[in-house]
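Regression test case RT-17, inverse folding.

Input:
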């Protein structure tokens, strides 16, 4: 009941309570969109972890998104988590996004990939093999790591003899001992593994397959993804992505992306 322009005290209190809740909720949403938490694994050269604090602190992907969110005036924190837990926690909303993930159901992401997962066939430095062709593998022994998610093009190819190892390092030792003719490796990890094991290797002529990778968000962040897309495009056009890649790999983003689209015949 309204009397002399004043609300009934109980109604006035209810109205104030609702207004207060709306203000708090609006503040929460604003804070949530201006501070996000990203999880991922250590994957050189795209991300390197601080083993003590369990944070991802540097690398190509870290540099790209630190700059992107700086331009958006959004604070970002990169947390190191086991991959399965990171995937699950982003889907459930505990974390906001997963770093360097493939385009998979359950996530949303900008259109521009910022990392790539190119896989190649590698041989020992002195091997007579120079080219890889899918139609010429029937007499070849190939090494792969047990439990790795290879692309369908690789995992569904049956015309070769597969030897599985426990780790990438063991894979190089198999190659060094002539147990396999070539091994399947991540292009970016290959030189790091070669240096670590002391096994000198070289890639065959072209990538076998490549997967573009993105910063993949929980679906509730559609507005943030819409803001992030144009920022990444700006960073592509103004040369920022090229500079970050060049500094770490000695090659540009544009060139890596071009070669990632090229696969062995």
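Golden output:
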């Amino acid at each position: 009941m309204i009397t002399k322009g004043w609300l009934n005290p109980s109604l006035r209190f209810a109205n104030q309570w609702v207004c207060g809740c709306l203000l708090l909720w609006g503040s929460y949403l604003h804070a949530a969109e201006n501070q996000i938490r990203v999880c991922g694994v250590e994957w050189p050269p795209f991300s390197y972890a601080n083993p003590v604090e369990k944070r991802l602190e540097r690398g190509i992907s870290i540099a790209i998104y630190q700059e992107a969110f700086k331009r958006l005036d959004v604070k970002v924190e990169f947390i190191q988590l086991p991959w399965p837990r990171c995937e699950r926690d982003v889907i459930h909303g505990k974390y906001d996004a997963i770093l360097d993930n493939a385009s998979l159901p359950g996530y949303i992401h900008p259109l521009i990939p910022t990392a790539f997962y190119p896989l190649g066939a590698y041989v020992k430095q002195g091997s007579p093999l120079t080219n890889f062709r899918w139609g010429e593998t029937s007499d070849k022994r190939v090494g792969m790591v047990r439990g790795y998610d290879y692309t369908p093009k690789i995992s569904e190819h049956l015309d070769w003899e597969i030897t599985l190892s426990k780790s990438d390092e063991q894979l190089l030792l198999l190659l060094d001992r002539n147990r396999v003719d070539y091994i399947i490796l991540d292009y970016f990890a290959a030189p790091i593994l070669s240096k670590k094991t002391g096994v000198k290797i070289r890639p065959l002529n072209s990538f076998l397959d490549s997967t573009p990778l993105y910063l993949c968000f929980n679906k509730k962040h559609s507005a943030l993804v819409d803001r992030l897309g144009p920022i990444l495009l700006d960073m592509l056009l103004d040369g920022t992505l090229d500079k970050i890649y060049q500094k770490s790999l000695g090659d540009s983003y544009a060139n890596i992306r071009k070669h990632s689209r090229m696969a062995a015949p």
